[in-house]
Description:
384 residues, alpha/beta, 12% strand, pyruvate-formate lyase- activating enzyme, DNA polymerase, domain 1, single chain, 14 helices
Amino acid sequence: MSRRTRFICYQPKTILNKAKRADHWFWTRYSAYPYMGCQHGCAFCYCREQKYIPYKPQGPDELYNEDADEFAHLIKIKENAAQLLRKALTRVPVDMIFTGDYQPAERKYKLSRQMLEVCLELGFPVFILSRSPLVLRDLDLLKAINQRAGAVVAFSIISTPESPNHIQINRMEGLAPIAEKRFAAMEKLAEANIQTGTVAMPLLPGLCDDDLNLQALSQWTARHGGKFILGSGLTLADQQKKFFMRVLSQDCPELLPIYERLYPAGSYAQAQPWRNIGLRIHEFCMQAGISDRIPRPIIPGEKRSLNKRIVEKLAYKLFLLELENAPSPCIWAYRKAAWAVEDLEQDIGLVYQSLGLKGLESIPDVSPQLAKEIGGLLGTVKVI
């Protein structure tokens, strides 16, 4: 018997989450979401973790169980989301914001659309990650935002119909529209010149991390106008882990020993190194002519845009070093240098023109070796 979904409207005091600088995954510095809980109800969603859950357990010892699965059946509506967002964005520098939530509740409440209207009004670029083609309803706003500030819309897709486990994945994705509809929506966005692609998160061990599925994901993405695939593994914690393992025992009991080995007690990410999967995604993306990272969006009229292009290059280099299992100090050298260039208040091109390598070496956490590398990059990076 299916459970009835409850909707509770409330007015939070804040909505905008802020970071010191943009991350190297989605290139977002801010995030703001209109709902808590999700009707799609994907069994593996990290938002089922205790720190994200939109309800309080009935007792101190209660962890997730089927009767307490409020994540997919209790949706909290931030009815003042647009007003809070407008107030918050007027107080921060313009940068990419991760926003929008196109679960079924959005059809009625239209809060994601209202928040996009605020972003357009104030000139903020947006990043949207969706499991639903409902995002196409707001294509008019996305086009306008893209022309003024920049927009990226990615689709969360972890398997294609070519995957031998596609039926099991469909069941685990709950009420989310099928992958074919998400790819069709991706094609519409690409036709509108909006950067789009696939976020393959999480790739479930033994279900969708095989070569056949990874190659099909890259081919389907390229065929539908996507420019990237961004992949990562499954994380499991507290009540989310209990819930997922219960679902796994019902749908794929033969995989339980694998998950118990990969996620021993107290673990969060896989014990098996992610780099093995990352290397295969990298290879398949190259074959399909797309990237295994999200290209950093160009924000029209942005100050120090050259700095951000250099940060993108450094971030990609450190990602490749991680895949190559390079020593940690080497990886951290690139990460710190990328952060330092991101934080630099001067145009790095002018620094190099006036002071040469000495100027680059004066940037905190930029070694002489990295200064030479950055100097070489400055001659290749184009800023539109």
